[in-house]
Amino acid sequence: MESIKSKITKIAVKEGLKYIEKDTQENTAKLIQWVEKFAALDDHKKAIAWVKKNIKDSDSIPAKFINRIFTEVNPRCREKLLTNFIVQSYFIGRPKAFENEKKYNCKIPWAILIDPTSACNLKCKGCWAAEYNKTDSLSYETLDRIITEGKELGIYAYLYSGGEPLMRKKDLIKLAEKHDECIFLAFTNGTLIDEQFADELARVGNFTLALSVEGFKDETDLRRGNLSFDYIMKAMDILKKRGIFFGFSTCYHPQNVDAVSSNAYLDMVMEKGCLYGWYFTYMPLGKDAVLDLICSPEEREKMYHAVRESRRTRPMFVLDFWNDGEYVDGCIAGGRNYFHINANGDVEPCAFIHYSNVNIKDVSLLEALQCDLFKEYQTKQPFNHNHLMPCPLLDNPDKLLEMVNAVCAKSTQPLDKESVECLTRKCIVPSIKWQCTAERLWNERNQEKEPPTVACK
Predict the structure, then answer these.
(1) DSSP letter at 82?
(2) If you compute the radius of gyration of the chain from its CA atoms, what whole number of angstroms results?
(3) How far, CA to CA in Å, does 144 sit from each of 157, 171, 172, 183, 370?
(4) In 3-state terms, what secondary structure has residue 253?
(5) Element (H, E) at 61
(6) CA 204 – CA 176 distance, rounded (Å)
(7) Count of CB atoms within 10 A of residue 263's CB?
(8) How many CA atoms lie within 13 A of 340 on its CB side?
(9) Structure-derived torsion over alpha carbons of residues 327, 331, 334, 340, reported in degrees to the nearest 10
(10) First to last CA, the chain
């Protein structure tokens, strides 16, 4: 049942948007003052103070980003972005979640990543989902239950991966329509986006897409198959035409890092209509993983600088799932800020950590959040004093080995049942190599110098 506060918020946001549309630059500051009334946490107040400071100059990147939202995004999607993402999920949901954390003695994350299906119409090289059973699928009823229970805990953000989640697009639209106060995002290969589906996205307004692209045509088709790039570009055109709020998702590795870190690439996706972007580094999951696709320290550092430079120069919000650990105090997985439920229902700490000791089909969402593996995560987070080494697999493999064995978590990869010993062994050398670079970057970003944990030559 939607709360009275939520209903009042929706009405107020609608009126506020009408007001700001009359003069975006002048009235944005006034709208921010209104949003400030919802600031219950110190983090809320800090975020609002930062926005107020940075939108005064119409030529600033934050001001230009806000202007893009008001000129490129259709009114329905724009309203849902402000109401559901900023007010409902952030300003209302987080205080509610923190209250429930005290009540139930466990972390309540900001978002849940769910695989509606493990089936996919592509077979991309190095895909972490390739190790799952392709016939697994979560029923509509199970997805609906997860979201319903999540809202009761204060969780209003739901992300979909797979497999290809849009193979279930009718169910996903139905869920977005039913849970109208939530925000939904699907990571998609883009090949199933057509005009009819884009019209549905425009209608519900609370469903955004991150299209997977690996660089330009050569890099994308190399990993995703012939003509994949063309399908993605066409899909972006369809979404942009309808004013859908969407972005891109890119996995970087030695074969494409030069392309995807380039100004030309970032300019291309922004011009196609992307308002945000996610970068992920290649993870060596599965016994047949290609270790040559793990980035070198130099390549990972290149992405570190490219993402930060993009945020300084482009009105498009771009983040790196690994290299931005410094902004969220390390790893956010294991229920701290997010966790993953695969298409079989296995509750995993992260999309890249395929070990579990509980299944959502057997327990409530709250019971899943109280599982032993998540407790291990939260006891040990952060996994490194240097938040540029946040990951318990890629950066601190000994930590993942310790946690999985401590609770006897089982592999959720039915195709090869890769042991945690086998997986973490592949990351020992890359983690040691990255450590020296990470320490240098960390020290450059912090005035208080900490001595390196290894002797770097």
Answers:
(1) I
(2) 21
(3) 13, 10, 10, 14, 20
(4) coil
(5) helix 61-72
(6) 7
(7) 12
(8) 21
(9) 80
(10) 60
Interior/surface letters 188-200, b for 16+ CB within 10 angstroms, e for the rest: bbbbebeeebbeb
* Percentages of the chain per state (helix, strand, coil), in multiples of 5: 50, 10, 35
For residue 149, the SS3 value is helix
DSSP code of 129? G
pTM (2 decimals)? 0.91
Chain centroid to Cα 30, Å, comes to 30
List residues bridging with 409 in a β-sheet.
none
Which whole number is the average pLDDT over 31-54?
73
- 3-state SS record for 374-394: HHHHHHHCCCCCCCCCCCCCC
352: phi then psi, degrees, rounded to nearest 5: -105, 5
Residues whose CB is less than 8 angstroms from the CB of residue 220 and which lie 6 or more positions away in sequence, other chains included: 213, 214, 228, 229, 232
Q: Could you please report the per-residue DSSP string of 281-313?
A: E----STT--GGGSPPHHHHHHHHHHHHHHHHH
Question: Residues 56-90: pLDDT tens digits?
Answer: 787 899 889 988 998 999 999 998 988 899 888 98
CA distance 439 to 386: 7
Provide the β-strand partners of residue 187. Answer: 210
Are the C-beta atoms of residues 204 and 84 closer than 8 Å to each other? Answer: no
Q: Is 140 exposed, middle or buried (0-12, 13-18, 19+ CB in 10 A)?
A: middle
Residue pair 278/319 in contact (Cβ under 8 Å)? The answer is: yes
**CA-to-CA distance for 110 and 97, rounded, in angstroms?**
8
Q: What is the DSSP letter of 350?
A: B
Q: Alpha-carbon distance 292 to 11, whole Å?
A: 53
The two structure tokens encoding residue 196:
């009819």
pLDDT tens digits, one per residue of 4-42: 555 655 566 666 666 556 555 556 666 676 667 667 777
